[in-house]
Every structure is written in structure tokens, then in C-alpha cells.
Specification:
Order of helices and strands: HHHHHEEEEEE
Shape: elongated
Number of helices: 5
Mean pLDDT: 85
Structural class: alpha+beta
Number of strands: 6
Strand order of the largest sheet: 1-4-5
């Protein structure tokens, strides 16, 4: 019995609160709680204007990003060989210095050319340019260009002579090697 006595005042309080809140709701007419159509329209127009403005800004941002990307790509193409060109300037300087010497001997020119070739080879290595010098290798049409075929004791389609070395840049052929290829002997 004691438990029911304790619960009774709480229940009465809850019922009173519910009555008060329902009485509050009765005092308000539906017209006062709901905004008018004009207010809803104005609110919707403001929201639409905000969304339109946000859309215009996003569109402008994406257009700016696209233009910046195009500019970056154009500059990358335009200045792609800048570092390589800078390295080649040292080779050019060496060649010009050799040409400026008045009383150079053949030995001096040979030494100068060897040093210049070393500079050029170092530059090629730095920029991952590799030489294709395939003498004695099997002919590969992806890396070699056959200029002629000759009778040889070597197996058919073997490179007998390299007329001009080829070059590879980052696994892409920039110039195939010009070669002479062995053919089967006519019997």
C-alpha cells in the first residue's frame, strides 16, 4: 500500500502538466502556429537565392580550378625541358671553351672532347636517357631500325653492325638504333 501512496502524487502532477499543456495548445489557433503562405514563399525564395548564389560560387570556383589546371599543364609542356637544358649549357660551355683556344694541339682537342662527352653522358644519365647499342643482339623492331641485311655466320636476325646508336628516355624509344642485320645464307 505504501508504494501506491507514493506513486499517487506523482501521477497527479503528471496529469496536471498534461492538462496545462493541452490548455496552452487550445489557446493557439492553427493560423497562429502555422506561417502564412506568403511567409513560406518568402522563406523559400530566400533559400532558393542562397542556393543559387552558392551554386554560382561553386561554378566559378570550378571554372577557376579548370583554368589554373590548363595553365599548369601548358607551363609544364612549355618548360618541361628546362632542367635538361640547364644541364646541357655546361656541355655547350665546354665546347665553346675548346673552340676559343688558339694554339691547341690535336691531343688537347681530343682530351677536351672526352671531357665534354663525359659531361654529356652524365647529363643523359641524370635524366634517364639510355643508349641503345645492340651489336650482337637479336633484332628487335621496337628498338632497332634495320637499314640493310647481310650474309653472316651469325644466326639470322642478329645485329651485325650498329650504324647509329639509339636512345631510350624513361622506357620510351626516342630514336631507334640504325643497324645492319644478318640474314640466312643463300644455299
Amino acid at each position: 500500500m505504501e508504494n501506491s501512496d507514493l506513486n499517487q502524487p506523482e501521477t497527479t502532477e503528471i496529469k496536471d502538466n498534461i492538462k496545462e499543456s493541452s490548455e496552452d495548445n487550445d489557446e493557439h489557433t492553427p493560423e497562429e502556429t502555422e506561417p502564412s503562405i506568403e511567409e513560406l514563399l518568402k522563406k523559400s525564395e530566400l533559400i532558393a537565392a542562397e542556393h543559387h548564389d552558392a551554386w554560382l560560387r561553386a561554378k566559378a570556383d570550378s571554372e577557376n580550378i579548370r583554368k589554373r589546371a590548363q595553365s599548369d599543364i601548358a607551363n609544364a609542356h612549355k618548360y618541361a625541358i628546362e632542367n635538361f637544358s640547364t644541364e646541357l649549357l655546361t656541355v655547350m660551355d665546354s665546347l665553346e671553351a675548346a673552340m676559343a683556344v688558339k694554339n691547341a694541339t690535336v691531343k688537347d682537342f681530343k682530351n677536351g672532347m672526352e671531357l665534354t662527352l663525359k659531361q654529356l653522358t652524365s647529363t643523359f644519365t641524370k635524366f634517364n636517357i639510355k643508349v641503345i647499342n645492340p651489336e650482337g643482339e637479336k633484332f628487335d623492331p621496337h628498338q632497332h631500325q634495320a637499314m640493310s641485311t647481310v650474309d653472316s655466320d651469325l644466326a639470322p636476325n642478329t645485329i651485325v653492325n650498329v650504324m647509329q646508336k639509339g636512345y631510350i628516355l624513361n622506357d620510351r624509344i626516342i630514336r631507334p638504333a640504325l643497324v645492319t642485320v644478318s640474314k640466312t645464307k643463300d644455299t
